[in-house]
Every structure is written in structure tokens, then in C-alpha cells.
């Protein structure tokens, strides 16, 4: 039988990893762990652990001192991991160890929906069936509503659909939850109402939760991440937390920013990430959440005070058509584009109104051509994907005034001052509000910072178009014609 004692070599610590985690519960050298045995199973089944996987197992399966009421030091293990870090290959030996460790052990696994839970279970079982070491002694049932992989000692692993009424009449020693980002606060609470009572009598209970970053709807996961980050400095915490994610101040499209990714130790290459970073393969938000493990949830500190912004919403008076300036922009991932209109009314108030927003980019150039043919003043910022649209229109004979980088930074400063202190009103565009909520400022070409397409937590084409329209409305003499 394999010993529970730690190996004789130096105990693995976060600083020993080539790609250290941003946050991680530290290994306690005084405690035994099942991590060594799980690592042996990984090796013997043909997929030895990478260092980050071994570290998670070493800490996540630390054992309390003999005689303790609970077997494991941590009853909750939360892993905040980007895509392509070998999560399945890490779970396979860990689950197998659980099933072998004690007879009649129940392990249940779930994900955001019952269908995905069954898919995750199927992936695990197919790995077992492909292993010469395992396939000869497992009994697999794939009946609808009766999916189960059973060992001769009576232990089994099965999927379940998440919900408040799940896991009735079961006593799982371990429950695994995948894709934690997909659970709202209410659905996450319902899941916990099912898991906790089912496990309460188990001295060897553990709940493992895995996910990449979520968005503003991922209340349950976002709360777990916040609690997990705090837990790493709490020696009494019953949560083990592990997070590999990009430096939030780094450029998500600079390959140098990707070096944190533990999958680069042998699972994927930089070239793989270059391909995934292309807009046609992943939207900006999907790239940030899935591969950089950066949440795109609305931040507490937005570029504008949103209460002030909401207070500027008003009914707008129809303008003099000759006084209106229009501006367009394209989302960094090209999933949307926006055109906004701005004008000063007779009282001197600046008015801002959405003219048109839409999915994709193909509609934008024909719309701008029509507007120009009607004699409207249309401008654009000379940056990001909008530049390609501008160049296309110029080749077709249309003159499109553009903001330089310095103009854009100056325009943004003026826009903020106008919203905060000047005579200003907007039409309450939800698209523009959403853009302001995710916008992140970075240093511009001038002395002033401005919303950055790359650094923002979602598309900001609405913001850029609105700022450019307001700028043009007050600068109609061609001061920034490119």
C-alpha cells in the first residue's frame, strides 16, 4: 500500500513552480497528504502530473492529524483556472484514488446543466476505459438517468443535474462542480442546499469547484473567487484556493502577458494561444475569461460615476439637422459596431443619442456611405478595427475625418468634464451604459488617459463612438481631420 507520508524530496511550494499562481493556499509541511499517491496513479495511468497539477493535489488533499473528526484539512477546494490546463487529466487519478481509498464511496459530479454534467462524466469514463490499468475492473452503466461507473469495492462515480433537489438519498464523500462561472447567485445557493446536507455525515467529505473567470452574471463564482483570495492569508480557513490568471494590468494580446498560463509547460504552445486570440476564434470577453482567466464583471470603480451618468438621462429635443455630428466605432473583437449622434441645442446643452448599433461589422460601411450621401457629418477615431472601415470608405471616395490618438485622449477628458459638470444630456442608451461599465482607462498618446479597447473588460465601441461624436459636435472646423 502506498504511504500517506510526504515524499522524501523537498516539498513542492508555489515558488518552486515555473509559472507560480497569482493566489494559492500554501502547502503545510507538517501535514500528510494524498497528493503523492494521486500523483503515482496519474503516472501509472499514462498521464503524469504537470507541476501545477501536483501542487493542487498536494495541498487540496492534505490530511488532518490522526484522531481529528474530519479526514481532510480542507472541505472546500476551489480552482480558478484558465482553459487548457489539463483539468480532466488532473481529475481522473484524483477521482480514482477516492474510489479506491474506501469501499462504497460515492463521488458525484456536475456542471452548469444536467447535459454538461453527463458529458463531463462521459469524458472521465472514456479515459478510464482507455487505460489498460483501469478498464478491466470497472463496470459502466450508461442508461438514461442511471449513468454510473462502479468499482468492485462498491465505490462509484456518477453525474447529477444541479439543483436544490439534487443528491437526495445519497451520501457522497466527494462532489465535483465544473464551470462554476455559469451559476447565478440563486442557482449556486440552490446547489449548496443540495450538497451540504448530502455530505454532512461524511468525515471524509470534500467539495471541489473548478472554473475559468465569469462575468457580471456569475455572482456565485465571483463570490467564491473573492473569498478564496482572502483565504490564502487565513491559516484557519477551511478553503483551499488556487488561481492562475493574467496580471490584470497586462496587455491581454501581448504574448509576454501569457507566460502565467500553466498549460504552456507542455499542454499548449504560444502559437496555440496566438490562434485563439484571433477575433474570429474568440470574442474579446471570451478571450479574457477563458484563456486569461480575467473576469469581465462590472467593476466597482468605473471610468465615470454611473449614478451621475444615469442622472444625465433625459428626453432630447429634436436637433437642427445641420448641427448634428455622427461618429462610428467597431468593437475590438468585431462582434458589434456603433454610431452615435451629438449636438448642441439652443440652450447650449450637449445632447448625445444612439443612432444605430448592431451585431458584426458588415452593415457599418454601407450605413456610413448612405449617411455621407445624405450630406451628414460622420467622423471616426483612427484606431482599432474601425480604421479598416475608414480606409475602405476612403478608397470608395468618401472623406472621413478622424481623431488621432492625442485627440482621442483629449476628447475623453473633455467628455468626462462635460458629463460631470457641463450642460449635458443623453438618451439612456443601454449599450453605451454597458460600455462605460466595462471601460478601462490607459495612458493615451497625449498626457491624458483614455478608454482602451485592449484593456477594457468588454466591447467599448459605443464609448469611443460617443466620445468622437461629442468632440466633433464642438469642433466642426476640421481641427482633427486625418
Structure description:
With 482 residues, the chain is α/β, with parallel strands linked by helices. The chain contains 14 helices and 17 strands. It has helices spanning 35-44, 51-60, 87-101, 114-130, 185-199, 219-231, 270-276, 284-291, 306-311, 364-373, 386-395, 405-421, 430-438, 461-474, and strands at residues 23-24, 76-80, 106-110, 139-143, 146-150, 156-159, 174-177, 206-211, 239-243, 325-330, 336-344, 350-359, 377-381, 402-403, 424-426, 441-443, 449-451. The strands form three sheets. The protein has a nine-stranded mixed beta sheet with strand order 1-9-2-8-7-3-6-5-4, sandwiched between helices. The chain is elongated and about 80 Å long.
Keywords for this entry:
482 residues, alpha/beta, disordered C terminus, single chain
Q: SSE layout and pairings?
A:
Elements: E1 23-24, H1 35-44, H2 51-60, E2 76-80, H3 87-101, E3 106-110, H4 114-130, E4 139-143, E5 146-150, E6 156-159, E7 174-177, H5 185-199, E8 206-211, H6 219-231, E9 239-243, H7 270-276, H8 284-291, H9 306-311, E10 325-330, E11 336-344, E12 350-359, H10 364-373, E13 377-381, H11 386-395, E14 402-403, H12 405-421, E15 424-426, H13 430-438, E16 441-443, E17 449-451, H14 461-474
Parallel strand pairs: 2-8, 2-9, 3-6, 3-7, 7-8, 10-13, 12-15, 13-14
Antiparallel strand pairs: 1-9, 4-5, 5-6, 10-11, 11-12, 16-17
Helix pairs in contact: 1-2, 1-3, 10-11, 12-14, 13-14
Amino acid at each position: 500500500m502506498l504511504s500517506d507520508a510526504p515524499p522524501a524530496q523537498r516539498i513542492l511550494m508555489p515558488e518552486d513552480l515555473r509559472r507560480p499562481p497569482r493566489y494559492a493556499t500554501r502547502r503545510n509541511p507538517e501535514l500528510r497528504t494524498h497528493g503523492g499517491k494521486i500523483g503515482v496513479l496519474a503516472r501509472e495511468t499514462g498521464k503524469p502530473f504537470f507541476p501545477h497539477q501536483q501542487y493542487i493535489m498536494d495541498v487540496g488533499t492534505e490530511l488532518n492529524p490522526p484522531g481529528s473528526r474530519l479526514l481532510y484539512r480542507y472541505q472546500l477546494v476551489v480552482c480558478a483556472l484558465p482553459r487548457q490546463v489539463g483539468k480532466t487529466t488532473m481529475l481522473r487519478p484524483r477521482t480514482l484514488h477516492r474510489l479506491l481509498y474506501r469501499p462504497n464511496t460515492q463521488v458525484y459530479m456536475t456542471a452548469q446543466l444536467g447535459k454538461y454534467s453527463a458529458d463531463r462524466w462521459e469524458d472521465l469514463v472514456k479515459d478510464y476505459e482507455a487505460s489498460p490499468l483501469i478498464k478491466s475492473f470497472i463496470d459502466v452503466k450508461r442508461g438514461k438517468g442511471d449513468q454510473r461507473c462502479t468499482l468492485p469495492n462498491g465505490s462509484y462515480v456518477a453525474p447529477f443535474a444541479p439543483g436544490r433537489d439534487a443528491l437526495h438519498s445519497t451520501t457522497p464523500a466527494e462532489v465535483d462542480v465544473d464551470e462554476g462561472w455559469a451559476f447565478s447567485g440563486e442557482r449556486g445557493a440552490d446547489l449548496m442546499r443540495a450538497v451540504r446536507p448530502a455530505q454532512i455525515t461524511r468525515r471524509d467529505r470534500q467539495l471541489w469547484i473548478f472554473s475559468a473567470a465569469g462575468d457580471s452574471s456569475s455572482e456565485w463564482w465571483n463570490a467564491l473567487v473573492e473569498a478564496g483570495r482572502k483565504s490564502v492569508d487565513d491559516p484557519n480557513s477551511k478553503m483551499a484556493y488556487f488561481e492562475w490568471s493574467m496580471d490584470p494590468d497586462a496587455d491581454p494580446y501581448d504574448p509576454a502577458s501569457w507566460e502565467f498560463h500553466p498549460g504552456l509547460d507542455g499542454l499548449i504552445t504560444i502559437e496555440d494561444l496566438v490562434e485563439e486570440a484571433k477575433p474570429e476564434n474568440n470574442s474579446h470577453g471570451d478571450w479574457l475569461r477563458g484563456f486569461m482567466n480575467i473576469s469581465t464583471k462590472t467593476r466597482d470603480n468605473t471610468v465615470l460615476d454611473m449614478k451621475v451618468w444615469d442622472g444625465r438621462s433625459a428626453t432630447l429635443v429634436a436637433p437642427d439637422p445641420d448641427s448634428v455630428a455622427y461618429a462610428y466605432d467597431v468593437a475590438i473583437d468585431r462582434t458589434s459596431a456603433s454610431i452615435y449622434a451629438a449636438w448642441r441645442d439652443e440652450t447650449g446643452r450637449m445632447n448625445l443619442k444612439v443612432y444605430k448599433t448592431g451585431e458584426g461589422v458588415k452593415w457599418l460601411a454601407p450605413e456610413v456611405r448612405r449617411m455621407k450621401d445624405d450630406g451628414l457629418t460622420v467622423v471616426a477615431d483612427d484606431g482599432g478595427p474601425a480604421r479598416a472601415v475608414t480606409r475602405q470608405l476612403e478608397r470608395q471616395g468618401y472623406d472621413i475625418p478622424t481623431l488621432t490618438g492625442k485627440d482621442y485622449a483629449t476628447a475623453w477628458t473633455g467628455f468626462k468634464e462635460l458629463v460631470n459638470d457641463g450642460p449635458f444630456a443623453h438618451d439612456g442608451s443601454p449599450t453605451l451604459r454597458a460600455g462605460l461599465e466595462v471601460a478601462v482607462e490607459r495612458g493615451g498618446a497625449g498626457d491624458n488617459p483614455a478608454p482602451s479597447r485592449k484593456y477594457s473588460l468588454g466591447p467599448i465601441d459605443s464609448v469611443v463612438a460617443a466620445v468622437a461624436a461629442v468632440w466633433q459636435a464642438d469642433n466642426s472646423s476640421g481641427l482633427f481631420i486625418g
